[in-house]
Design goal:
The complex is a heterodimer.
Chain A lengths: L12 H5 L15 E7 L5 E7 L8 E3 L24 E2 L5 E7 L2 H10 L1 E6 L9 E9 L2 H7 L2 E9 L11 E7 L2 E6 L4 H12 L6 E5 L12 H16 L3 E4 L2 H7 L6 E9 L5 E13 L5 H10 L9 E10 L13 H19 L3 H6 L21 H12 L1 H8 L6 E12 L5 H6 L2 E6 L5 E4 L9 H13 L6 E2 L19 H19 L6 E6 L8 E2 L4 E2 L4 E13 L6 E11 L6 H20 L5 E2 L2 E2 L17 E6 L17 H4 L1 H13 L10 H9 L4
Helix pairs in contact in A: 4-5, 7-8, 8-17, 13-14, 15-17
Chain B lengths: L3 E2 L4 H10 L3 E3 L5 H4 L14 E3 L9 E3 L3 E5 L4 H6 L5 H8 L4 H4 L4 H7 L6 H7 L3 E5 L4 E5 H4 E3 L2 E2 L6 E8 L5 E8 L7 E11 L5 E9 L9 H7 L4 H6 L1 H11 L10 H18 L1
Parallel strand pairs in B: 1-3, 2-3
Antiparallel strand pairs in B: 4-5, 5-10, 6-7, 6-10, 8-9, 11-12, 12-13
Classes of the chains: A alpha+beta, B alpha+beta.
The complex binds flavin-adenine dinucleotide (FAD).
Flavin-adenine dinucleotide binds next to β2, α2, α6 and β10 of chain B.
Chain lengths: 698, 280
Amino acid sequence: MKDISKSVEKIDAKEKISGRMKYVSDYKMDDMLYAKTVRSTQCHAKIKAIHLPELPKGYYTVDYRDIPGENFVKMIFEDWPVFAEETVNYIGEPILLVVGKDKAVIQSIIRDITIDYEPLKPTFEYTKSEVHYHYTKGNPKPIFDKHNQHIEYTYKTGYQEQAYIEPQGFIAYLEGERIVLEGSIQAPYYVKNAVVNTMACEADAIRVIQTTVGGAFGGKEEFPSVMGCQLAVAVHKIKQPIKLIYEREEDMEVTTKRHPSKIVMTAAIDSNQKIAGLHARVALDGGAYVGLSSVVLSRAMIAATNAYTIDHLDIEGDVYRTHTVPNGAFRGFGAPQMIFAIEMFMHHIAHTLKIDPFAFRMNHLAKQGDLTSTSGTFRDPILMPEMIKKACDISNYHEKVKTYSDPKVRKGIGMSWFFHGCGFTGSGEAKHINAKVKLKKDDQDVVHLLIAAVDMGQGAKTTLMKVASHVLEIPLSQIRYANPDTDEVPDSGPTVASRTAMIVGGLVARASKQLKAKWAKGKEVVVYEQYQQPDYVKWDEETFTGDAYPAYSWGVNIVEVEVDKATYEVDVKKCWSVYDIGKSLDDLVVLGQADGGAAQGIAYGYLEVMNHKDGKIQQKNMTDYIIPTAVDMAQTETHFIENPFALGPYGAKGAGELTLVGGAPAVALAIEMAINKHITKIPVTPEFIMELMQNDDR
Amino acid sequence: MVKHYLPSSFQEALEIKHQEDVMLIAGGTDLMVQHRTWSELPPQFDKPLLFLFNLAELKYIKKDANTLYIGSMTDLETLLYHNDTPPCLKDIIALMASPAIRYVCTLAGNIVNASPAADSLLALYALDAKLVLTSLKEERIVSIESFITGPRQTIIKSNEIIKEIQLPHQPFNRVHFKKIGGRKSDAISKLAFLGLANVNQDHQIDTFRIVLNAVAPTLIRLHETERTVEGLSLEAFKHQKDALLEAYNTAIKPIDDQRSNRTYRRQAALNLIRQFIETL
Ligand SMILES: Cc1cc2nc3c(=O)[nH]c(=O)nc-3n(C[C@H](O)[C@H](O)[C@H](O)COP(=O)(O)OP(=O)(O)OC[C@H]3O[C@@H](n4cnc5c(N)ncnc54)[C@H](O)[C@@H]3O)c2cc1C
């Protein structure tokens, strides 16, 4: 049989490249109305009064009073209102929708709305903790007492915007009594469950259909539930189709972003110059509402030791509420912040101890059989030594370190090591998601994949269809995989957390096997599969102990830079990567993930700047929020090492997030070498480099 | 919908401009962005529009012994590849916007938009560009520096159209252009620097020019300072380094904004000036 890694033409390539593919903003319906959101201009205030102009016939406003059920968007933490009631907590918080046929009229109505506010004191600091987690491994207290050489550094990371090409959007309409929502989403069942809660209706009263997604990067995980709830309320009231599409600036200003963070790392060093114990305190800026920030926090905390084994840990973390736009899911989900911190910290410890950082890191590298940060076990082979050697060889890393360590040379090379836990953290998969898949063979012998997984450009349709095609030994042309519709597909979970290829793909492989066994030519056959946690995976949610993930993907990034002496600009020369994602389900698809991940991860480290001023986002269009162009993108050289995972389809593990999480530390370490200064904050902008170079201490 | 005119000749355009208060639109790459509204709605203009970009008679690049003449509707991509375009202007255009935008945007638009961060103005200031301002009854020629009076402010009159940009030929054998954008392509300048000089066979500096954008309300060019070094030998010139740096340091007044901050702009500008001086 053919090797599944061999690339095929991406299933949707022709339709997308030719421009024929329809996205939700292309949808039109008879009697369709448009909606636009009226938002808070205050970061924290009481709403004293809302003055509406007289509305022309056929124009409506929709606010919290129209909500049949509860006024919060059901996600993990139940604090995020569908519409603001008495107080607003961030600039851009939705207060009401104006709905009607003509956009120009809607705009003039909005211009005539005035809202009286009574300002309240805002918070922008890490002071108000909403979620606090803590876990330990081993016996950190006595270890810290015994080894009195403690090294401490504080690391800070900024916002990152997903910058998907297609902004957020939905169209909603009635089908009889039922409400149908079609939109650009990553998690059809998240939207459905949230809307059912807001509408206080039966589950089958809501139908959610995914439209072709033009990029998501986590930004369409939980945020669409907010819009979905608002639109369902509006359609319920007005009973006509309504379209709600965000403008680019609106999207950048009010939708969720990567959490800014502050991470304090303290290590107790033993007499062999090894880390005996590690203490980490993680602070995430949750923004105005917690949403799913707690899950981001746990992934960050669990990544505290990254690809290293440290026996004694004391890890604490908080999500802080601030009067800023709520932060949420973004490719990497807490790991990019933590991996930046720990990778820099390993170097900064080595510098402090005046020993070779490479040897110091090798001394701590995790091995098969070691206990993870949460005292689970790394059961599968860890090929990092081989991967590191390969990455060093192809980049000539050790030679370059020698040359570039000369303080007069403004070049640098940085290497990051990292892992990413595949699937939901902890008992998420088994307890909360419980993924189901359905395969149907119709009487024409065409096989339909009925799963909730979303292809948002990453190639899920291509890879999952290939899995079915390989197991069933039928051509791709005999397989269909429509955009998920909750009326047709069971809940196979959201398309997040590097779980789709490994977990949903694993279920598709199993279901295909079942279907193959039951195959009856010319007859309809339907099979189901459901996720089962492997017996050996044990997790205690309260104490953060056990196996946080069923499997881990691993990676090495090496980035070379040159820093301009006059302008402090960073020129990223090249990026070498070696990954263990188990087994590639399509070489070009995973290379796409690798190149895109490198671009986004490296840019997070040195290029992408977003900040707020008194709660107002300053970079709210693609002119001011700088993401790399093809010219900025370094040349990449990427290798995959096979290390099949028994429970993944053909051995596949996750690849989506892994390829992002190592970018920032690799580029920051390279810049650190080039300018000979410690870097403890990203993005490392020219402005920041100038500041560092004007300080004399290392 | 806003009313608009598509004149078939420059004369007709001048007549319309004479009779009615209309907004001129060349490539529209500034105007369409500035007047955008909700997607699917037309941009919002409070005046009728007069389209100039279709006027073939304003698309030309000509020269005589002393001067290069650029018709005001010549697009930047054409200028980028034209043999007679001064090298420093080519360097600048190559880093402006993206190819797609360059095909439809003009020098005239960049001039009248009068952004402190406009890039082509570096070359126009350094090369002593002159603008031909035409109205139905008159034509006047003004220097680029007298034309721009402040951020988004010019002396153009309500009945005038820029017909032509004139660049006197000047030899420069040292050209240093550096644009600092947020990234390598398709970026608005945090600041940009153009240094030009002509060093003769006797190692004397005949002409010396420095222009900076985005470090003051309008672009910075210090004529008096330039004159203090013109005629000096390279040797003597190097001794003027500190005085030069001091002059520019005093003249520039950068600000903090969403793209960068004042400290960086100042420091990077001075570094670029120093680098230029040291490599002459
Ligand atoms: C994506 C993007 C990237 C950009 N990048 C850059 C960049 O890197 N550097 C840079 O400097 N700019 C950049 N710009 C800005 C813009 O492209 C330039 O300023 C361009 O030169 C404007 O030319 P235009 O013909 O499109 O002007 P228009 O938008 O048509 O007009 C601009 C102004 O000039 C007036 N005008 C036009 N023609 C005449 C005339 N003949 N007589 C009198 N008045 C006239 C108009 O009334 C208007 O006030 C960018 C713009 C975009 C959209």
